């Protein structure tokens, strides 16, 4: 029997015209009954927001680079995930968008005991979760209970331990270890429905910020999963697709729908606890439609075509995005320095590989570990050149560890390294180095050369490394550039230590000096030059360790500030991290939006609940 | 026939074992692991990384991880994605439809155009039509899929006639049935073009060559000699015989249904399996990568099997059973 395509046309037609059509739309659309959330009365302790009263009903359209992996805050590691979770869940305290101070949020007030060990939070009364259930102190206690719940040994009934004798936690989350204070857990107790008290095992200054900043989970939704051990599997993308209403929160929005790789839709939380000056419930925005895009560039393109409402614009894209301002009726604002930092460091790890080979050639280690060598390098970098050539003037010089964005913690009175190649040469001479022709040689006659690596997928960094190579060539130093995969770099800097110098950047981080303890302290996992030292290897590292411990221990702001200023001064003098530049923040918004009052710390949408736009008929 | 199918399916087992082992080895050789990007974040406590390393078994050598994974697979569990905390099968289930739809469209588009074009090029051999179609076919063959996709993105951005990515519009959720259908179709046009154009060229050339071979055969002369119309000769007798070799090409096309669209999906931001796989490979989310590789491999074997069966059905000279 012969096979012919033509004989089957009828079947094909049926398949592709009729069958497929139904198939196309039904494929991932599941019609499920969405429970209607109960709308609770406006809470007694509702926060009144003092912005001019606006109109309800507008939708926000925006893009987000990268997709969600989960909406479970205990599991999430992605930026898209944090953004989405941050819209749904809320915390006891928040930061003032202007001053950066800790201000009330779900907690209307708090007291700290005289010995600085007890924190008593008074919760807003009458606040309800997005599904209409009341929010109480039990939710706070439940949330903290998930961090520190221990596995029980079925044989003895006592908490289980691993082979090293360490307690095994049921749910290993970032908060489990992040909220521990020197290896000890803070205690939490419920005093009444609206009062909760934390006791820290020792004086721990950042507790108000770090502890109070934890997102609160709904006990009535997650308790069963907590009990049966499936807590980490809750609020997965599967839930987000099929039963988005199960993700219950206290913040402005709830999840309306989610399509993997395409978009996230948030709807207004009908039970939100902020009201406008007329006493009407906020937010004004009806929906946020978040389109998932590949990267920052495609996100910027969408904004430049007038497709989205709010956008953070990469410094190297500002010029062309600005061109559409009049045509698409949007505004771009320069928000000043960002909190991101870019820096170079040398491998200062004195150890050796298992085969007994030193990580760094001994004669090179001798250069790198002399602060004068690092200072000479720092004087030889043309930071203005980087700002002009790489960032087209959309960056600022970064003198030290703290970005000038963090005004409160920023010490301007530190050693600064302008572009002074002659000073570099003088320092090299002081070290006994000499020039043979144009080339620099050390006292033992070794040519001064080293390799520097950076991650190949960051275009700006690749360009900065190229400028750095040129600057070093002017000093007679030969720099070899290595553009590597990010994972390879992390492996080299944290495991194999098989590198000479590296250029990377750090973004954001919590606005408390203690958030940098893993970078600044010699035992820290991210103490780039030589991580996880058991004892500080140098005097200045020992001093910084001591200062950081004091910063953790003191609650008085001025004392902490003085210690942190000294840390910054030491970092500037010793140059373990040679800071380069900090890109500026740029944001854009469509002009139809009202009540926009951007701040450097809070950005464009810190007052999202008060933003409104006229709804097109 | 059934014996043949069973034998073929049994060869899948050593094949999958070999390939998955290879994936495990390659992933252990690749720099870093799932936790490396986490290590690069400043506020992740070292204790958490250790705890998760133990939880995921990342502290074990690759062969221990492999044996554990195999054990789970034999129990019918493909593993949990580390990033998504979901069974891998659920994760693939979420995305499979979009990719399947795209592949089917590209398949129908390319075969629907290529076969008639190939036949016409053969009938009117050496005519101006033949030459132009040959020129276009070579041009299409020499443009890689991903590059064509990039050009199409640029085209969409410049003209605004087509969406620049995605599978549905923002308003999709609030549309009626026919609007939804139109919206999906609108979003499918560019990915279908990008994926289909390359195969149009190759299928068309195969079809042309086959058809030329056939119309030179003796039975065509016989058919003409007995006075059949040229139309009957070409489309009733020649075409049926010429199409046989394309059946094996169909098997290959089938095997690419779920994995062939990776590049196009990434460039055109089409939310299918390809994107998921790509992200998982970058993220070293092991079990998702393994499931994807296994799926691709199984589809290839099934595609070839299907081609063989179809060939046996359409061509009486081929027998799958061993001669008794």
What is this entry, summarized?
With 617 residues, chain A is α+β, with helices and mostly antiparallel strands. In chain A, helix 3 packs parallel to helix 6 (219-228).
Describe the structure.
- The complex is a heterodimer of chains A (617) and B (324).
- Chain A has 617 residues and is α+β, with helices and mostly antiparallel strands.
- In chain A, 29% of the residues lie in helices and 20% in strands.
- The longest helix of chain A is centred in the first third of the chain and has 18 residues, at 9-26.
- Mean pLDDT of chain A is 88; it is low at 1-30.
- By secondary structure, chain B is mainly α.
- Chain B has 14 helices and no strands.
- Chain B is globular, with a radius of gyration of 25 Å.
- The interface between A and B is large, with 70 and 68 residues.
Distance between the termini of chain A: 64 Å
Going by helix content, strand content and strand pairing, the class of chain B is mainly alpha
Using only CA atoms, what is the Rg of chain A? 28 Å
Radius of gyration of chain B from CA coordinates: 25 Å
The biggest beta sheet of chain A, please? 5 strands, mixed
Topology:
The complex is a heterodimer of chains A (617) and B (324).
Chain A: H1 9-26, E1 47-48, E2 59-65, H2 79-88, E3 93-95, E4 102-104, E5 107-112, E6 118-123, H3 137-148, H4 174-178, E7 187-192, E8 195-199, H5 207-212, H6 219-228, H7 237-242, E9 253-259, E10 263-268, E11 274-275, E12 287-293, H8 296-304, E13 310-313, H9 318-322, H10 325-328, E14 330-337, E15 341-346, H11 362-368, H12 371-379, H13 383-389, E16 395-397, H14 421-430, E17 434-436, E18 439-441, E19 449-455, H15 459-474, E20 478-484, H16 486-496, E21 501-506, H17 517-520, H18 539-553, H19 557-574, E22 577-579, E23 581-590, E24 593-594, E25 612-613
Helix pairs in contact in A: 3-6, 12-14, 18-19
Chain B: H1 2-29, H2 36-39, H3 46-56, H4 62-74, H5 88-123, H6 128-142, H7 145-159, H8 177-215, H9 218-225, H10 230-242, H11 244-255, H12 262-267, H13 273-283, H14 286-314
Helix pairs in contact in B: 1-4, 1-14, 5-6, 5-8, 5-14, 6-8, 7-8, 8-10, 9-10, 11-14, 13-14
